[in-house]
Request: fold
Amino acid sequence: MKDFLLTRRQFGITAAGIFVTFTLAPELVLSADQPLPGALSGTPMLDAWVLVGSDGKITIFTGKVELGQGLLTALCQIAAEELDVPMSQIKVVSGDTRLTPDEGYTTGSQSIEYSGTALRFACAEARALLLEKASAALGVPANRLKTAEGKILSVDGRKLTYAEIAKTDLLHHRATAKIAPKPASQHAIVGKPAGRIDIPAKLTGLPSYVQDMRMPDMVFGRAVRPPGPRDRLEGVDIATVRSMPGILSVVRDGSFLGVVASREEQAIAAREALQQSAKWRTAGDLPDAANIYTWLKKQASVDEIISEKKSPNAKQVVKRLEAAYTKSYVAHAAIGPSCAIAVMKDRKLRVWTHSQGVYPLRRNLATVMKMNPEDVIVSHVEGSGCYGHNGADDAAFDAVLLAREVPGRPVKVQWMRDDEFAWSPFGSAMVMQVSAGLAADNSIADWQYELWSNAHSGARPGRPGGINLLAAWHLDKPFAPSSPRPVPVPPGAEDRNALPIYDFPNQKIVRHLVKETPLRTSALRALGAYANVFAIESFMDELAVAAGVDPIAFRLSYVKDPRARAVIETAAAKASWKPGFKSDGTKGRGFGFAKYKNIACYFACVADVEIDRKAGGVRVTRVVGAADAGQIINPKGLEMQLEGGMIQSVSWTLKEAVTFDRARVTSRDWADYPILTFAEVPEIEVHLIDRPEERPLGSGEASLGPTAAAVVNAVSSALGRRIRHLPISKEIIKQAS
Amino acid sequence: MISLTVNGKKRMVDVKPDTPLLYVLRNDLELNGPKFGCGLGQCWACTVIMDGMPILSCITPVSAAEGHNILTLEGLGSIEKPHPIQKAFIEEQAAQCGFCINGMIMKSKALLDKTPDPTDHEIIAALDPVLCRCGTHKNIVSAVRRAAKEMKK
Reply:
């Protein structure tokens, strides 16, 4: 607790021997024609991003956080490259409201684009300032100096360390971005595989996660959730639970119920006792799961034509084909349930969380707790794998509510498995309806696409118009969540990748954002892109079959972008795709492609499957993918992100559906919600196309949609019948057989 | 008081006998290797090895561990001196978020102790119950293969 209210300056002195003063730069208004690159535009001071310590160690700061995606390693590579220091000399500080820039949320595979770009320019400029200073000190022109291994070397043999040079507020300057970062041809670290900086500690049991944090006087908290989303607490026997061993506090505020105990197992026992004695008024207002897609289409929605195109040269439509596709609610299903620690002392609050956005969370916490944001410190500490907006922020707020009851004592709240499955937001169920007008030559003259979905975005803490913290909705004086709002495409949210990447003469794309949200939904990896790519790529296959054309050749006839073509052709070649594939009734082959968000990483893949018609089984045997993510920072990291996405997508596509009855979510553990296991994981290959002179493109979510599409197309080819629903359950296979 | 032998050391803990071993290891003995994943014995994030057998510490009462040898991830090796399995996992970069990796490494340890030269099928069968959500399966299997090779040397 010694760093309870450590300032950034103190942090510099105590933690890293850093002497350069840091002050937050005032909001800078840049002229529209000269924006600073990446996240520098929001945080323009160089020393907000990089500091040189008196011991020669470099500290870099990022408002983005590690989610298990290897981000901090990639950022470390970027800084090491521009500063000419080994990665081992760099410490990365991330996501901390005392210390780092406010970069909003770590989402949308944008961290390299924004934070990485800022660090790249800031470090290049820092190196130039160090050289300039050394030039004056040595009386040698800067062009006769070079940098290597954290030192400045003069042609005459003299050396200076960065630490010797950086003795004043050298980096306390507004970035100019006038110093060009190294060209890709000079890269020695960026673009080369680098070991993840966090992996050795994680693999040897060193504390790495918020779950591993222990503090003096720390106690354990648990929340007791209602059975269903809108159930209300009518009564509970608090007195009996208060007398249980180790219980420090039982908190009831409206329908929020929680407990603090000296020991973890005591908190768990009290939670169970409270669950048993609590009387809830059941809302029973969930829609009928069997008709959820009809339900979605019937609700009031925020509708928008997101693209409309009419070409005078379009050929005449002679026939129309149409199809409707559906996708279930999907859970984050992280291996470790959400966890947080909070301590409250003298109207100051300190929170450790695996939230994707420490600043937005702070804003919501300050509002609900009626505190000044300056009195709330939120620090990111890693949790289990994060694939979007999960329960991290909610667990943090639970910890705050419980910490209020035991002032000065840190409270660790660990969600139980059923909390995570029932209360983390879901990826929304969706309906996609598509129709194509074909010309006499079977080419697509007109494309009509409509989708219905609950929100995939806008439900995070910090969004305007409400408080997006679970317990806040259950308090005696409850807060309302913010109302979901559409996100313009690109990047879009529900309609992410609803714009076809293919060039059709006429098209109309309509998004229906369904506001009524019976089950809580928010951002899950790839957002709407998973289902939209599934639908578009399935329908492209249907049209290719109808036209009697090879599915890949059919797609290529609508693609002009050479980078897209290269990715499609690479995947096809590496998978030895041969036109005219004929299934023997059990084996299938399928293709899928997308450019994520229409503006990020290109990904194409071929999936091979085997089906067991009797048992309803589908086995994905192999998936071969190709990707173009622009300039590659860490090939190994990129490959793992893409492969991980492919495997997660196979899991969603074959197995995953949240189940619910009229009152509650019924998928509450791994038996109710199975995911792909080792024996079911396909053979995976990814081929990377490096474009060192291009901008790095977000890639962490790029492979999910195309993989789903390739698997569905492969299963459909094996069955000889079209699958239009995800997941592809055993019943679907049996019925289609 | 309950007496435990963890990573070769005798430890005394003052807890109720039905306390799950996981909480004793994490909270009383301050070990980080075994993780809370489900508390239901479904995901194996909490794996420790008891007398050579991988067990689910989240559903094993601490009293059942008395008189047995408990090995946790920390008992294998350290960041300075990793066990060949840990080294192989690091070399293969076989972790994304890393939350499941305790289970992967401890299950692999139990497998390789009994089957020093496992087939891919045996590796997959041994690891199949251990859940991974990030999709790191391929690198994990490569790491176990590499560890087997290294340990034979």
Summary: Chain B touches chain A through 58 residues (CB under 8 Å).
